[in-house]
Structure formats: structure tokens, C-alpha cells
Amino acid sequence: MATYEFQCSACGPFDVVLPMGTASPYRDCPQCGKPGRRVFTPPHLARLSPALAGAFAREERSRHEPEVVRRAG
Ligand SMILES: [Zn+2]
């Protein structure tokens, strides 16, 4: 498995864990459902990215603070 980073124009960066070689240039944003654009990040940098670390900790963190969910319309 590999982590791929995407950028939503509305919500900002998010990442998706997929089997190697299966990532597409676009991926639906988990928050608003709009297609996010693939961001090509060197693996060693992605591993240090706060956004990436935040994604891994999201489930844990949501127990302490409510997650902001944007709703269109
Ligand atoms: Zn979004």
C-alpha cells in the first residue's frame, strides 16, 4: 500500500491509501465529494507532512475535537 496526496480546491489537501500503482490523477474529496487533484510528493517528504500525519491521527483526534464538515448547499 502507498499513501497518495490529493488537493481539494475547497477543503485543502487530503490523502488516500491505495495499493501501489492504482492511484488516479483525481480522487473525490472525502469532505465535499468534489474531485481533488493528485499532488506528487516525494515519499520521504510525504511521511513528514503534518497533513499526512493528521490524516492518520484523524480518527483518534475526532474523539477530542469535532471534525469540521463542509456541506455544499
Ligand atoms: Zn473538498
Number of strands: 4
Radius of gyration: 13 Å
Strand order of the largest sheet: 2-1-4-3
Structural domain tally:
1
User: Which spans have pLDDT < 50 for at least 5 consecutive residues?
Assistant: none
Structural category is alpha+beta
Q: Would you list the SSEs in sequence order as H and E?
A: EEEEHH
Count of helical stretches: 2
Task: Give the biggest beta sheet.
Answer: 4 strands, antiparallel
**Bound heterogens, unique:** zinc ion
Terminal CA distance reads 35 Å
Helix content: 10-25%
How large is the share of residues in beta strands? 25-35%
Oligomer: single chain
- Principal-axis shape equals globular
What is the typical, i.e. mean, pLDDT? 77
Overview of the structural elements:
The chain has 73 residues and is of the alpha+beta class. The protein has one domain. The model has no long low-confidence stretch (mean pLDDT 77). The termini are far apart. The protein is built from 2 helices and 4 strands; from the N terminus they run E-E-E-E-H-H. It has a 4-stranded antiparallel sheet, covered by helices on one side. The protein has helices at residues 43-46, 50-61, and strands at 2-8, 12-18, 26-28, 35-39. It holds the Pfam family Zn_ribbon_8. This is Putative regulatory protein FmdB zinc ribbon domain-containing protein. Residues 1-41 form the Putative regulatory protein FmdB zinc ribbon domain. It comes from Planotetraspora thailandica.
